[in-house]
What we know:
Elements: E1 34-35, E2 38-39, E3 63-67, E4 77-81, E5 92-93, E6 104-105, E7 148-150, E8 156-158, H1 175-178, E9 191-197, E10 214-220, H2 221-234, E11 252-254, E12 269-273, E13 278-282, H3 309-322, E14 325-326, H4 328-356
Antiparallel strand pairs: 1-2, 3-4, 4-14, 5-6, 7-8, 9-10, 9-11, 10-13, 12-13
Amino acid sequence: MLIPLFSTPLTSRKPSSARRLSRRKGGGGGGGHSSGGHTSSAGRGGSSGSGKASNPNASKARSGSIQSPGAKAGGRSYTTSTYSTGQPIPLSVIPQGQLFAGRKMGGGSRGTIYGSRTYGSGYPNEDSQRGTSGRDFPFIFWPIAWVVVADSTNTLHPSSSVPDNSTSASYLNTTLEYGTPTNDTRPGGPLAFIIFTSSPGLSSNLTTGNTPSTFYVLSDNTTITSLLSDLSANCTSFFSAASSSSNTSIGISNINSTTDLVIPRPEQVIQYYRASSIALALEGYNNSATYFPDPSSALDSALPSSMDTNLMQCLNETIGLAAPIPDGAASAVFRSTGVAYVHLSVLVLLWLMKMVV
């Protein structure tokens, strides 16, 4: 479900515009544009501020290595990139004998990284589907595994033991498929999250009142570690006044329990990214559509008017621009170089055997 403001096809949008969230139905829109390893659109924030990067060094591209979903069964390694559009890795089918055999990997790009508030969004050309069970891996990373969900009476339960009268929440229980959040076989490692709280002293950042907003960014440990420096640097002006107090918490929190009720919950999510493998959540937000029995007629609850829109827009746009995604071009070089080394090693071995004979 997309915001009406961003219902135009992706191909008709200017690549320099990062997607912005609205207080109405749906999620955000399109990706960013990079030039020379730097983002050229760290963004346009709310009407009263800007989401532009406050630290020019924070926009530099980085690369790393992740493993495919078949990592424990001899899966490949892929190079990831930030602040670049990258080239999607070619679609391939996970072979028999590996985890998730028969599913496809690849095809995801920076331009298709945004989803909506629906768990199961953020997949290329498949934003309307709810749930992630049986889905492919366009960005290699696995979708988030939720720890707790609410039942029809808004009572919290571990996602693996949702009561029978709450079948509308069953699509959120993927722990049997992707493991618990502490599963270390997940590409990028176990799930973790960062907490960002806006400064109550910066009232100009808030739409109404002087109440700070608390946001959570949830994903695998590798992604969270990568995003931490970018989010802290790009959005520092929206919480820097409180950085020395307990009002702002900037650091990685690991999930140590499968029944921890303190971590972000699915009804608090205001935006999914990268095939639902990253989520931006708002404390106090309760999206009734998350547990609505009929997803085709579910309407997202409006975002609160007291929310700090500037911090929200900055977090949203920075995640879209800086989240690590597989780089097909770099991965192709990595694979071809590896093959070349194998061939060279064989030739050297044959030469040595000939010398011995």
